[in-house]
Amino acid sequence: MHRETDAPPPTTDRAFPAHCAARSRGLDDMETQLIRCRACPRLVEWREEIGAARRAAFRDWEYWARPVPGFGPPDAALAVIGLAPAAHGGNRTGRMFTGDASGDFLFAALHTVGLASQPEATHRDDGLELYGVRITAPVHCAPPHNKPTPDERTTCRPWLARELELLAPTLKAVLALGAFAWQALLPVLDDAGRQVPRPRPAFAHGAEFTLPALGDDRGPLHILGSYHPSQQNTFTGTLTPDMLTDLLARAARLAGLNRRR
């Protein structure tokens, strides 16, 4: 029998993520709780408004319009962290980076390196498999203008913290896609007892540092940064396919995933 203090807060309460994430017994259990979350009113309103209005090209879709969980194997050696689901991408399909141009760019690179079974991701049941990689984000709901607020990032942080904690026994490397992901990741690692350098390493494409082993069962953790595969970056050549493929290949090697085709 649970004590009264163990009862979860309402899904609309800002304390809901912290309470439920900490008590998740595994990634599947965490996902069950995460997709119920309504702790950020602005994000809930936006994701549901987009899901009801829909884009003309997707008018026959039933939008997911809920928090989008991470996906990939529970024993992943590499985590790839984005920003948040796209309004007509993950918010529509229910899977991170699935169904939008950023995802097309990312999955093509993952496939080239040998970390994904196919170069395209169109919907949750398209047969895509990730090999040794888990994809997630610091904010799990689609934000207006692709810009979550710092407060929304903080509210959502317990989900990322618990996801990385559950992956910790096998996790060897993390690739942060963009400054937002980088800035969200470092405090999570700090809180987990990892010795993040001071001053904190600055984000840059190709930035890299290694955190020392933590105890007897947590080996060194390699942290890398890449520009986010947003259309703003890919259309302008700020991030090219070769740039992302090269960084993914390095992250894979550091994680012990030598799968390049």
TrEMBL record:
Gene Ontology BP term (one): base-excision repair
InterPro entries associated with the record: UDG_Type-4/5, UdgB-like, Uracil-DNA_glycosylase-like, Uracil-DNA_glycosylase-like_sf
Domain Uracil-DNA glycosylase-like: from-to ranges: 69-248
Keyword 4Fe-4S: yes
Entry GO MF terms: 4 iron, 4 sulfur cluster binding; DNA-deoxyinosine glycosylase activity; metal ion binding; uracil DNA N-glycosylase activity
Keywords, in A-Z order: 4Fe-4S, DNA damage, DNA repair, Hydrolase, Iron, Iron-sulfur, Metal-binding
SMART domains linked: UDG, UreE_C
Family per record: Belongs to the uracil-DNA glycosylase (UDG) superfamily. Type 5 (UDGb) family.
Protein name listed in UniProt: Type-5 uracil-DNA glycosylase
